[in-house]
Amino acid sequence: MRRTLLHIAVASILAAGVLPSVHAQRAQDQTPAKWTPARTPDGHPDMQGLWARRGAALTEANAPKTPLSEFGATGQPYPTVFNTGVSTPQAAAALANRPAGVIEPANRMLPWRPEADAARREFLSNMIPPASLKYVEASARCVPPGLLGGDDRHPYQIVQRPGSFVLMYEYNHVTRVVYTDGRPHVGPNIRLYMGDSIGKWEGDTLVVDTTNFNDKTSFSQAIPFHSDALHTTERFTMVDPYIIDYQLTIEDPKLFTAPIRIAGAFAAAAKGNEMLEFACAEGSQTLPNIFGFGEFPGQ
Amino acid sequence: MRTKLWVITATAVLLALAVPAAAHHSFAAEFDGDRPVTLKGTVTKMDWVNPHSWIYVDVKDQSGKVVNWRFEMGPVNALLRMGWRKDSIPAGTAVEIQGYRAKSGQPVANAKQVKLPDGRELFSGGSAPNLP
Amino acid sequence: MLKFLGFGLRTRVYEKRAGKQKRLYLCFAVKLACSGHKSYDGCHMNKRAVVLFAFWSFLLALPALAQAPARGIPRAADGKPDFNGLWQVLGTAAWDLEDHNGSLRMPAGQGVVEGGAIPYQASALPRKRENFQTRDINDPAEAACYMPGIPRATYMPFPFEIIQNPKLITMSYEFGHARRSIFTDGSPHPDGFPDFWMGDSRGRWEGDTLVVDVTNLDDRTWLDHAGNHHSDALHVVERYTMTDPDHILYEATLEDSKVFTRPWKISMPLYRRMEKNVRILEYECVQYIQEQKYGNAKPVGAK
Fold this sequence. Notes:
The complex is a heterotrimer of chains A (299), B (132) and C (303).
Chain A: H1 2-30, E1 49-54, H2 89-95, E2 101-104, H3 114-125, E3 156-161, E4 164-169, E5 175-179, E6 196-202, E7 205-211, E8 231-240, E9 243-251, E10 260-268, H4 286-291
Antiparallel strand pairs in A: 1-3, 1-10, 2-10, 3-4, 4-5, 6-7, 7-8, 8-9, 9-10
Chain B: H1 5-14, H2 27-30, E1 31-47, E2 54-60, E3 66-72, H3 76-81, E4 94-102, E5 108-115
Parallel strand pairs in B: 3-5
Antiparallel strand pairs in B: 1-2, 1-4, 2-3, 4-5
Chain C: E1 10-17, E2 20-27, H1 47-66, E3 85-88, H2 125-133, H3 135-138, H4 140-144, H5 152-155, E4 160-165, E5 168-173, E6 179-183, E7 200-206, E8 209-215, E9 235-244, E10 247-255, E11 264-272, H6 285-294
């Protein structure tokens, strides 16, 4: 009798393991095949690798003219003479018809608070020539880029491990560790250029909540600052082997009366490309050129 | 690198269309778009650095005096990904450079185009040297 | 007669069987090599007992002899030691790799250099002296917040995070958010690349030790605040060995044929930062120094 019961117990345990997958298989057979990503050991989509980010910009309709984006009497935009070309033809094709930049508001007229819009126009008027250090464009001062100030001609590296999703920028070698281990944000008096990011998976989408920004980074050439009330939400969803869909929602109640949504993507880099070092202050001659002193060492 | 560098170059050309809005740093604060310059000379050295590589060129002015100019270019990472290497442009190489003078009045300029004698251009997609 | 050597754990086992008297004495004191002889406490040994004693001693000593890997260390999915987490050096190697005395706001330290002194070539000593004398304005890491290079980034007085997956190990240093990638995918150092402030790092595993080969190190970095320096010929080989879940033994061998007479080695423990929810924060000394230098300055030509 005992032996029989034992056999029944073992058979039940095995059945419990097998049946769900049989059920899933049936369900799968009934729906059309959909691309699903490979998974990390802890069961999440594996987005690891080197990527080129596109579209993540605060594109603004009727942005004020700023001499940052033009030069001299020609009024021509500064010639962009390079791109790092890490991406692949397939990724380029996949990017071609995707939305990019601000998608909400759809007309890209950003919902400025009037006083904030006035402040940024005033700020812009002091930038060329720069009235003082803080009016020198942030990227020229090697300021850590925050979420939007990065130079996307340089790639990004994603590494995943249990408890965190790591987004490394080649540009200015900043590293964002998004903790997915359930921890809370750091205390409100800790202020960071790159903010403090915690994430959670909603199905196969990583949702990243970032707070604790300082007010020292730049959004774009036309929006050279933001406030420390900034709060962002990003959503990363891998849609095929070449593209991670990237959605960024910006809320800065001291600048804007409503959230702004941006659509972008990370496009897969060609194999064999590696993250390279992008040292900024070490090689920059911009501030000595602007101020006429301060080359290291010595001055 | 194990990668076929021509592949990288080819994709660089293809991706020219998908270049993102660039956060260029303060060209306008340092250089004068109303003062273009075209100079010919010989390379004395190159700084292979980020955020901007620099190329130093001996240029003879009308009086025959040699002045060493330095020209700001893009980041070294872009050069490397296009296949350029540290020994690609040895001292003594003749170059022709178009650019914009520094506002400081020093012999410094931002390079729009750097052309080598065989027609190759630095930073331009599709112009990497043939590497093994 | 052997001397009694002290620590003795002696067990005597008697076994009596019907018709025979078998006595097995297993004596764990060292003096009992005297097979068949009467040791002075009256304990008898026979050959079988000696063989058994030797066998068990050897077996129990094996782990120590074979230097078996530390037990209980965390392992990654690929079986390798899992270095993920925040680590930091204690001690003052960042200030001076060699023995040094205390000074205001700076503790004394015993050097981390094996053999004591860094083996400089005579021609390199004037530069070391000059660096030391001008260190407060010329140390690229302290005076300009330039990235400290390898190995100095390891022992700066700031934490760093090891971010590890099977093909790539990244070290993210809180000092100036410096970072380097250690490629463990078998790729070689690239040909014809320029130097980088944090070098080019390629890693491989030797058992449970991560061995990192670093080249392409920019010659402008210093090895510490005391002005110890190197040339563009510097080649560093690091070894990371987890000695228990919260400590890594860090060793680095430096060779530079233009500056040193021979390769030399440093070593120190890395201590895991144990605080709950610890994370790398920001130490943006480039910004702090800029503010100091240019905060009140006017651009050339400004009104």
